[in-house]
Amino acid sequence: MSETPPHKTANPPKATWDEQIQQLYESWHRRVAAAEIGHRLMSDRMRNRYETLRRDMAKTLALPPAPAAIPTEGGPHGR
Which of 16, 42, 47, 54 has minimal CB crowding within 10 Å? Predict the structure, then answer.
């Protein structure tokens, strides 16, 4: 027969915030920031490539101009 799970205490012990946890936290923030920058760079490259291809195809096929670009500055997070 299985054992019963331990009961929750009213005041669980708190983890102490030390230098090792601070370094882990800062490292995680650096990685997140790097990933955001990488996504922004790739997005900008893809958008520029699309606009270049669209412009070149418009010259070749006499397509109507592309719609106005979506602004990237000041996005949902105010960057």
Answer: 16
